[in-house]
Amino acid sequence: MASLKELRARIGSVKSTKKITSAMKMVAAAKLRRAQTRAEAARPYATAMRRMLSELGRSTKGQSGQPVLLTGTGNDKVHLLVPMTSDRGLAGAFNANINRVTRNLIRRLQAEGKTVRLLPVGRKGHDYLTREFADLIVDHIHGSGGKEIPFSAAAELGEAITSRLEKGEFDVCTVIYNRFNNVMSQTPTELQLIPLAMPENDDVAAAPDAPVYEFEPGEEELLSRLLPRNLQVQLYATMLESAAGEQGARMTAMDSATRNAGKAIDRLTLTYNRTRQTNITNELIEIISGAQAV
Amino acid sequence: MPIEVEIVSPEKVLFSRAVDMAVMPGLEGDIAAMPDHAPMMLLLRGGVVELYQDGSVTDRFFVAGGFADMTATRCTILADQATALSDLSVDAAQTRLTALEASYEAADKMNVPALDLLMEKMQSARAEIEAAGGPAA
Q: What residues does the ATP synthase F1 complex delta/epsilon subunit N-terminal domain cover (chain B) (predicted)?
């Protein structure tokens, strides 16, 4: 049985841990709100871009010589995976989920005889993948460290991916990120970016009386400009979702940590009181039996 | 009859209102979006978008290239970067232009697409300086 002094010290330390976790929860909640606002603010651009792309896709359909971003290289040999994790831990299974999905995907692709290359975004994923797949990593990009993500970060990543594609370094590009369902749950999701799955069943495109567009300069020129930008926008959207998910996961993790700390304190306090009572009883017995012996 | 104009950057919606006319810098010349304009998509160069109401300009935005999607009733401008004219800074754009000119000098003169891209960025930076009220390039 631990002594009273030891118990007091442990209660003290659990109490301060609880204070820290509950503060982290509040911070995560505030950051989550901001991340969600940003994700919403970025949506109109993505929507308009999708509309334009589906319009362009409709009028260039069936033409030869389409951009490589849209059709891919025609091969399916080299896969570039872009796992998105956070820079910081203490977010529950947020990063572990991505790492697990990435690892399984690498194993599966390798079993199929494909070559896999990795371009991890965020420190946690990079740290994890270095241990096992150091030779597959072509480059890595740090996340924003919990700060707000500027569009330029996504633009740089998009340019890096596009230039690698143009050099023929890979055939298929897939992003693995945490999709934000709600504050409590994020689903690790694989999203194939190259070759791009064209948004076919768009409401606008499906309408039979949709107006016939004029394009300036040409359709190909526009498409070749829109596609890299679309890649960046999609990356930006996944980054924003991942950032919101990170805060959500951290909030949930810190919430349960706070609750667990509370329970631990209750348990320790009970033991402390019982021990104290036993000690008093023992002392009393000693005094009484001493007095009777006289 | 007004036309719904939206100016959107990847990060947020900057402007969304019905106006009489919007003049934007198309890659091959300025284009005005008015009600009942034929549906059209165009590439934008760096320049100023002017929004007209009752015959006079009400708002001006600088866009650093992008796309525009026009139909009879609305016009969506997808700007790579959009700033209200009052928030532009001549110095920042000048620094950027100098850096771009340096990288243009250093660039491989055989790589035509890369050179074109740099040229376009330089044009956009020059337009930004002009729009911010600096000396015209």
A: 4-82
